Amino acid sequence: MSEETLTGSPSPATAVEHVDVLIVGAGLSGVGAAYHLRDKCPGLSLAILEARQAIGGTWDLFRYPGVRSDSDMFTLGYKFRPWASARGIAPGGSILQYVRDTARETGVDQLVRFGHKVVKADWSSAESLWFVTVETDEGEKVISCSFVFGNTGYYRYDEGYSPSFPGVERFGGTVIHPQHWPEGFDYSGKKVVVIGSGATAVTLVPAMADTAASVTMLQRSPSYVLSLPSTDPVAATLGRALPKRWAFPIVRWKSIAIASFIYNVSRKRPELVKRILKKQVAAALPKGFDVEKHFSPTYNPWDQRLCLVPNNDLFKAIRKGKADVVTDTIETFTETGIRLTSGQELEADVVVSATGLNLLPVGGIHAHIDGEPIVMNQHLTYKGTMLSGVPNFAFVIGYTNASWTLKAELVDEYVCRLLKYMQDNDFQTVTPVAPPLTGDEAPLIDFNSGYVLRSIENLPKQGTDAPWRLFQNYPKDVKLFRRAAIDDGVLRFDRVPTGTKLGEGRKVSA
């Protein structure tokens, strides 16, 4: 949603179709949302609008070498369709197939409208409807709906973040952003420099090391890394000993408990966790490697997300002499590589700019209420999934300290409970009503990663107390989303005599 004001708001007469719930996005979140809505709210009509031509979202977009999950698949996978492999850290292609198989097996794939990019959404209080403008190959069209459910993630798909590098125009090699990896790109025998120190960089370096002549990870500052086996030994053992329906919940809750424990200890005893992480790294690297310089960040663990290193692959590449880490800043690109502030020069044929994402909340949709633009940073988030003052709208933002899907499925279940409550009580609209502001509000994503800090002014805010404050705690959120009363005194429910009721999904004449 954007603060830009667009004229020419559509009217009811311009809508060519009406559905009860419109899901935006057919990635991991959108497929899950559609499954839950069909399962728990079978009387509602719905459609999924997907701007691209394929199901999969992130996992269809990212094609760089070694792309994989940065959360275990027992929690990143769906609760309703358990991840079947003991391999908890999975390659991107396997995850993409899993999402597509889930969509096909549940019939969700039949609900997807490909090449449908949502560009504008206009709420009419008189009609109690959203009028959603969609760009297609055949031109623009308008679809009306009672409820919009955003499952677009939080970053911009068509453009990754690329800082302005001095002298890059004279570099004689190839510069690539991982978000736009060229199909079939051959880097064999080439000198590669990967700029960055986050999850993408620590994935790319070992994946390219065996084929490239050399791979150097060039970082301005280090990140914390945690080495884990890609195959979960508990999952492997229980998978052999128990039926899947018993083994999966045990493994899932084990993963939730371990992730929560690591996060909580990191927040309460950061110096202890620092020592443990550095000790693990030092044990995996060659003797004498400067761990303090290259793997000791200035921030505390979980101020930014921990980077996973499955099976010590990054450290193995360094030990074999296939990869290296340089911590420095860029003075300028040259014709043959990069000259650093220290004076060191890195020769390169290929430079990969693993420099992060551009945030784009709710897919960058321009939205209005009765002609007034919705400005994201002027709204509080209710339970991290609705916006104060914005009727009949929800969105999914996953956890920053755990897997995305854990939070997404709680939101899905909550939205289903909410819609059923509205149907049962003959309400057409629901709107979170914000408390008075105190000045202590924080951004929705309260994280100091670069991609968040660059866009912090455009994000909605969270308040000081629940349900306006995020817990980042799965057990607490289970109570908040699954068990708390729907009518909690914070949501305002309305009956609109002229409005459209949920469950009245219908065709509308053009």
Number of helices: 13
Mean pLDDT: 90
Task: Decide which structural class fits the backbone.
Answer: alpha/beta
Portion in beta strands? 15-25%
Write up what this structure looks like:
The chain is α/β, with parallel strands linked by helices and 510 residues long. It folds into two domains: 12-158 and 358-494, FAD/NAD(P)-binding domain, CATH 3.50.50.60; 168-353, FAD/NAD(P)-binding domain (3-Layer(bba) Sandwich). The chain contains 13 helices and 25 strands. The longest helix is centred in the middle third of the chain and has 25 residues, at 244-268. The relative contact order is 0.17. Mean pLDDT is 90; it is low at 2-8.
Secondary structure layout plus pairing:
Blueprint: E1 15-24, H1 28-40, E2 46-50, H2 58-61, H3 73-76, H4 92-106, E3 112-114, E4 117-124, E5 129-136, E6 139-150, E7 174-176, E8 191-195, H5 199-209, E9 214-219, E10 225-228, H6 233-241, H7 244-268, H8 270-284, H9 291-294, E11 307-310, H10 313-319, E12 323-327, E13 330-333, E14 337-340, E15 345-347, E16 350-353, E17 366-369, E18 372-373, E19 381-382, E20 386-387, E21 393-395, H11 404-424, E22 429-432, E23 442-443, H12 450-453, E24 461-462, H13 474-483, E25 491-494
Parallel strand pairs: 1-2, 1-6, 2-3, 4-17, 6-21, 7-16, 8-9, 8-16, 9-12, 10-11
Antiparallel strand pairs: 4-5, 5-6, 13-14, 14-15, 17-18, 19-20, 22-25, 23-24
Helix pairs in contact: 1-4, 1-11, 5-10, 6-7, 7-8, 11-13
Cofactor: FAD
Family: Belongs to the FAD-binding monooxygenase family.
Keywords: FAD, Flavoprotein, Monooxygenase, Oxidoreductase
